[in-house]
Amino acid sequence: MGRSDARGPRLYATRGHLACALGLMAALVLGGGLWPFSPESPVGLWFAVAALLTALAGAVLVLPTRRWTMPGALAVGLLGAGALLASCRTPEGLVVLAIGVMTSAQYAAYAFRTRVAALLVAEAIAAITLGMVLAPVPFHVLTWLVVVVMTVASTSLLGHVTHWLRRHATTDDLTGALTRGALLERLDARLRDARRAGSPLAVVSADVDDFKAVNDTHGHLAGDDVLVALVASWRGPAAGRALVGRVGGDEFVVVLPGRDADAAARWVAGARARCSTPWSAGIAQARPDDTVRDLLARADAALYAAKRGRPGGRGPHAVPGVPHPGH
């Protein structure tokens, strides 16, 4: 399988990214308090929001990693920005702050998954709307409309492009399995989750038996069809939370959270029953001190042991669209 580290692509913003963004927002808000747009600006509120954003930046770095940690911090920051909007005393201040909230929404579209990003963008639009309505300064409705339309358009475009890029960075175009980098990154996360929860996790290392013979006999397109059918069979009703990744030409890794080695063996037996393509498998159950590399190395060793013990194969391949010999 080659080098088995867990350093996959960074597909989403890290805690450090968000902490830097919140810190930059805090510095800008602090500057607004020191050099206010208007002598009547409530500088105390600006200093309070700057302190809030600074605290959020620190909290993002020190709090345990949870799904809500980063989105929650940005959501609270948006509330603070909305409060500043509502207290603004000048039209130019309204526009500058509204653009700042829009930029936060754009960050959400880039940094988070679609559902979470949509909620944060909706919060940003609500903050812009309520802040401008409650502000003690008149504004033209067209100003609000332009800011909202720009927010929706820019976040939609950014979200679409980043989703497309992430999908192509993490998904094998042929089989729909995870790419090697994406699999290693997710396996690393699942391994940490299993260790924290004290639950089992098993890994299946698999490859197609005599795959070269399929390509030589039926052609590479037929070999592609075999791989597609094999991965599809692994995604049957019994797959559950399984992760399937393609790590080589005909080499795959299946991650089975919540299953020990015996349960993984039953999964392999069921998967073989659903697919006529002969394939070999090696199973390894995670140990408390395992790294991703350790776990995959044991699964690989079990796979090669299984292949060495395979008595002459399990019969000819059934290639989709090609009649089986003797039929």
From TrEMBL:
Keyword set, alphabetical order: Membrane, Transmembrane, Transmembrane helix
Domain GGDEF residue range list: 199-322
Domain of life from the UniProt record: Bacteria
Keyword Ubl conjugation attributed: no
SUPFAM superfamilies: Nucleotide cyclase
Pfam families reported for this sequence: GGDEF (PF00990)
Name the UniProt record assigns to this protein: GGDEF domain-containing protein
Alphabetical GO biological process terms: cell adhesion involved in single-species biofilm formation; negative regulation of bacterial-type flagellum-dependent cell motility
Ranges for region Disordered: 307-327
Transmembrane parts of this sequence: 12-37, 43-63, 117-135, 141-161
GO cellular component, as recorded: plasma membrane
PROSITE patterns: GGDEF
GO molecular function: diguanylate cyclase activity
Composition-biased stretches (Low complexity): 316-327
InterPro entries xref list: Diguanylate_Cyclase (IPR050469), GGDEF_dom (IPR000160), Nucleotide_cyclase (IPR029787), Rev_trsase/Diguanyl_cyclase (IPR043128)
